[in-house]
Specification:
The protein is α/β, with parallel strands linked by helices. The protein contains ten helices and 22 strands. The strands form six sheets. Strands 1, 2, 5, 6, 7, 8 and 19 form a seven-stranded mixed β-sheet that branches. Strands 10-17-11-12-13 form a five-stranded parallel β-sheet.
Length: 451
């Protein structure tokens, strides 16, 4: 991962140690059962919005008391998941993507180290896995999604086998195996897969493919390794502008693709991967290296709950991020667990959080949402090789919304500066600004002003 400003990227010093101690104390001793704001999940969305909510009330001259905002999550660690692609490409250690959750919690945010089991929105409460009931004035669900490793027959066993040739950038435990397998391959068939349906960071499966291709070209192995992209989707990317550019790049680089081919099983002993086609038939492919993006979906404790839509996502208004049911008007959601019809990325969260914060503050202060609306902005920094990146940015309707086009030109052009955004700038911004609630998407460090 990034080597930029390393001193800024470590949690060190007296203040950090005090923060860790206070957070652990609050987590282990809190017996409070009612909170002003309950945040479910301490991932990118949860930490960002918990801090922004606290800061918004303070900026309005109506500060919350320390402990009024609680984050509910049993995890020991917090992960910067985009770092797993960097680790898989040999651009850093996976340990750079992980920090103890307690080290990221400020003393004014209460942490309860438990997970939610059930929602009771009619009584503004939840129950935890231990049976504890916690009530709230407002609820924010930022719980992420579920990675269905068992959705592909043979995948868990293949990932656990160091000699299988099968790996994935979609977990902390397996992302370093990606680089090991990619770098070790001298000849054969390298297959990179992407499932049909919703996944987080839908560009990531091909990012690692492009990086592997470039590695093989630069190390003189390009003629000995055949690369295939097998995707359950009908195109290279959801946004036509970027999809056309990526498909042209694929053809130029001699990478074959099979669209609407969904990986369903892996036979490690015979090095065969089986794909289901759109017509229901199956096809087997021999592999030497197989990179897998697993299927994903809503979390079990949200799916089927009163706050979920029929597909299992928290059902919120796509503009205000408030629950669509008036009787659940004190519930909000953002990020991967939400029903928002946009790509599930960290970049999306940076734009969703200030809108959610403004509307939650307004509802708690006046009973009505503010004028703040979310336009679906998201971004996918598509690594296409070492020293180059295509920066895809778009909003609802798959319409491009490019931040740098007026200054640098069309963002389908692959640029080195974008590569360093991904490799160096974004990780630093994440750890030093975003999780503290001090990064606001395209507005950078400046909180948007909503009219």
């Amino acid at each position: 991962m990034s080597n930029m400003l390393p001193a800024c990227r470590r949690v060190t010093g007296l203040r950090a140690r005090q923060t860790v101690a206070l957070a652990r104390y609050a987590s282990s001793t809190s017996t409070k059962e009612k909170f002003r704001v309950l945040v479910i999940g301490a991932g990118s969305g949860g930490l960002t919005v918990a801090n922004q909510i606290y800061n918004r009330f303070k900026a309005a001259g109506k500060p919350l008391n320390a402990g009024d905002v609680v984050v509910l999550d049993a995890a020991d660690y917090h992960y910067y998941q985009p770092g797993w692609t960097l680790a898989g490409a040999g651009l850093g250690s996976k340990t750079d993507s992980r920090r103890p959750l307690a080290s990221l919690l400020p003393p004014y945010i209460t942490h309860i180290a438990e997970n939610v089991k059930s929602f009771y929105p009619e009584s503004s409460s939840v129950t935890t896995a231990s049976g504890r009931t916690i009530s709230y004035d407002s609820l924010v669900v930022a719980a992420g999604l579920k990675t269905n490793w068992d959705g592909i027959s043979g995948l868990p066993q293949a990932l656990a086998d160091p000699s299988s040739g099968v790996s994935s950038i979609y977990s902390y435990d397996t992302c370093d195996k990606v680089w090991h397998d990619v770098d070790a391959l001298r000849s054969g068939n390298a297959i990179f897969t992407q499932p049909a349906g919703i996944i987080k960071c839908a560009g990531a499966p091909q990012k690692i493919m492009w990086m592997a291709w470039d590695r093989y070209q630069k190390s003189g192995r390009g003629n000995n390794i055949k690369i295939d992209f097998m995707t359950g989707l009908p195109t290279m990317f959801s946004v036509k502008k970027y999809s056309d550019a990526l498909n042209a790049l694929r053809i130029e680089r001699g990478i074959e693709a099979a669209f609407q081919h969904n990986l369903v099983s892996i036979d490690v002993a015979n090095r065969k991967a089986t794909f289901k086609k759109d017509d229901g038939s199956t096809v087997d492919r021999d592999f030497t290296l197989l990179h897998v993006a697993p299927p994903m979906g809503p979390l079990d404790f949200i799916k089927g709950s009163p706050i979920a839509d029929p597909a299992g996502w928290v059902e919120v208004d796509q503009a205000t991020l408030r629950h669509v049911k008036p009787e659940f008007g004190n519930i909000f959601a953002l990020g991967d667990c939400s029903s928002l019809p946009t790509s599930k990325t960290v970049a999306a969260i940076t734009s969703q959080a200030p809108v959610l914060t403004e509307n939650l503050f307004s509802v708690m202060d006046t009973g009505k949402v503010s004028s703040a609306t979310y336009d679906g902005y998201t971004s996918c920094p598509l690594l296409t090789g070492y020293g180059e990146l295509m920066l895809a940015e778009f909003k609802y309707g798959l319409v491009p919304k490019e931040s740098f086009a007026n200054y640098l030109g069309d963002q389908t052009k692959r640029r080195r500066i974008f590569y360093h955004f991904k490799k160096d700038l974004f990780p630093w911004v994440y750890w030093s600004r975003m999780v503290d609630g001090k990064w606001f998407g395209p507005s950078g460090p400046f909180r948007p002003k909503f009219v």
